[in-house]
Amino acid sequence: MYEIWIITRKNLKLIFDSKKSILQFVVPIVVLLAFMKLLSIGSSPIKIGVIDKDKTTSSNMVIESLKKVSFMNTVEVKDDEIKQAMLQRDIVLGITIPKGYEEGIVKQSPLSIELSVGEDNSMAEGIRSIINIKTKDLLDLSKASYKDKEKYSILINEYKTEKVNISSSFLQDISSQYETTEISMGFLIFYLMIRAVVISGIILKERENNTYARIFMSPVGSFKYLLGNIIANLIVLFTQVVIMLLTLQYIFKINTGIKFIPMMLLLMLIILVAISFGILCVALFENIQVYSTISNLIISGTSMFSGSFVPVKLLPESVQKVSFFTPQRWVMDGIQKMQQGMEIKSLTMNFLVLLSFSLAFFLIAVYKMRSSQKSIIAINS
């Protein structure tokens, strides 16, 4: 155990051997967090432009009903400015309440509230529904007043001030936020795998400067040597992942739809897979340039058709089936399951597959390293 700790400490010193190494630790965290924050901006409250030509209690109640929706902000605009405001994206759509709106309500023949929308605006139907519901409430009050304006005014004031034990809420479509989380986590997984391979490359550097041979001439075997590299790698990447996830949850308050512990487990397992894969490549390739090129190509290629860069549903069906032969796909699949509200036990297969990947890569690497160790001992004996 002491030998493993010595190797781990030695690797950590090699990882953080300069100020540049500290930057390599901090900068990716900042860049990824900034990227995730920028992608999440689209989920901020939308602005609705309002033109109230009626200026009555009824028209004000329609506007108030829109203000109560948590993901909407209403702003007053002028009639001749509404199109310009939409072109400049200051507002997503405009609402014009015509003059005589309340009078039409009282007479049971309401004037239509006009919606100004762009070519593609999915919010229009939802806003129209809110307006129709409020108009229906006002028409019911008018009906109860027998079309008498004074009685209607009394009823509408009572309606406004009377406390009724009813609560309502509007369902917000958070699918876009979940897709943002998927893309962000996909890039995070890609970074973790690349970084794990870079750290595993320390072994090749030690092979070039003959440190590798000297270590194997000591009582330290290939298993302990590799375990020391894995632990150092885990410490670095685990720290980065914890910082990112805590920042997302408690500082940026981004709704990922995933609980902290399941996400942490999925990311830790993909880190293990990446480290084991890096060590396997070290065992197979002696040249550091060949090692870097092939490992990066494999990680980039598998990330492309595993759903790390684009949502899996956008990939061809044949590619989706093949993607389950990549470890990244099992992480993305676990993220989707958690976003759908499944419990952590539903991720059992995902955990087992990821563990199988890491064990297979690690055992093959150990076997190859032992063969290399025997050759080194034979040459030096």
Automatic annotation (TrEMBL):
Its main location: membrane. The chain crosses the membrane at residues 21-39, 183-204, 225-252, 264-285, 297-315, 347-367. Residues 148-372 form the ABC transmembrane type-2 domain. InterPro entries: ABC-2_transporter_component (IPR051449), ABC2_TM (IPR013525), ABC2_TM_bact-type (IPR047817). It is found in: Cell membrane. One of its GO terms (cellular component) is plasma membrane. It comes from the Bacteria. It holds the Pfam family ABC2_membrane_3. Gene3D superfamilies: abc type-2 transporter like domain. PROSITE patterns: ABC_TM2. It is a multi-pass membrane protein. Keywords: Cell membrane, Membrane, Transmembrane, Transmembrane helix, Transport. GO terms for molecular function: ABC-type transporter activity. Belongs to the ABC-2 integral membrane protein family. This is ABC-2 type transport system permease protein.
